[in-house]
Amino acid sequence: MFRRRKCPSCDHRLAEQDDYCEACGQEFCPECLAPIAGGATRCATCGVEFELACPACGADVAADSSTCGACGYVFDEAAAPAESGGIVGQAASQALGATVLALAQAPERGPSLADEADAVCPSCESPWLHAEGFCRACGQAFCGRCYEPVDDEDEMCPSCGVRLYVDCPSCGFELAAGTDICPDCGALSPAFCAHCGQPLEPGDVGCLSCETRTVIKRRRSARTAYRLPGETRVIQIVSCPDCGEQFDALEAVCSQCGFRLCPVCQIHLEADEVYCPRCGRRPEAIAAEVLAAHTCPRCAAPLPATPDACPACGQLLCPSCLAPVDEDDAACPRCGAEFELACPACGVSVSADATVCVACGHDFEASDLPADQPEPG
């Protein structure tokens, strides 16, 4: 029996020493297995330093290098990132050089495991994370449902009775219960019908809604290469597992070879699959949701990352859900978030129903200047 842990980014089950999640691309420190950002030069948890890869040729380079010793690529002369939303090619690869160099020069001390821990291990009293499913200090495993300790020989949790391990239906490899992608053969056990999107129960041989046969097969995954800051969102660049082309995951299709993926799970989708069999979402709908969430509901102009008003038409927006709001709204009509207003004379926060500023005495009703509309209270 072997121990498993979960990826903190997507809850995918990982083997004990995995330093990379094949489902979502999350990377882990090879020393302490703490999650690390793509392109990080140092683990914020244990302090170990990493070597980086040249974005042009892939050769290993030191974190403080300004030039690749293999191909001569100059990191600090990289071009600017490509525009948001489009296919990212050589310009994005060059932009990575600047990103790598900035990461190497920036301080990277982050919160420790003790700061983020969900619980304390009863075996060694060290902090551990529910998402990982085991204690890094002593290796104690925990039930993924009730988080109580379990032994290596346990087939079922002695506390809640949930089954802890199952066999992969494709290759027979022993998996922790709840694992949807087998780490041995890469086969996905679908949670949703790929043709109608209806949920599937474990062991279903077909969809009860559309009668499409359930197929358990190996799914290749696109790996996250790096992330670039865009005007309205962070652009996640993935590497195609078939041809190596790098492109925006939101595009969902490799422009070079046609490899199709789910923008969320990054697993391969067949041409006739309408829904992702892992998360149950339509790739086109995911892209539409992300783009619509950052456009003005009144004029459809692009919005900045944290808008309180549209820069194009001036429409006030709820900071929580981006719904249009009026100047005198005390709460968002869509999500109900209550607003605090700012006095236009002195800037002090006042309640939405106030008529006079308690700090400076400014009379809102007598003034032509309405109180500013800032944050939800």
Care to describe what's here?
- With 377 residues, this protein is mostly beta strands.
- Helices cover 8% and strands 14% of the residues.
- It contains 3 helices and 19 strands.
- It has helices at residues 90-105, 113-116, 283-292, and strands spanning 4-6, 13-15, 27-28, 35-36, 52-53, 60-61, 119-120, 127-128, 141-142, 149-150, 165-167, 174-176, 187-188, 217-218, 223-229, 234-239, 246-248, 340-342, 349-351.
- Strands 15-16-17 form a 3-stranded antiparallel β-sheet, covered by helices on one side. A two-stranded antiparallel ribbon has the order 1-2. Strands 3-4 form a two-stranded antiparallel sheet.
- Strand 7 and strand 8 form a beta hairpin.
- The longest helix has 16 residues, at 90-105.
- It is globular.
- The model is unreliable at 77-116 and 373-377 (pLDDT under 50).
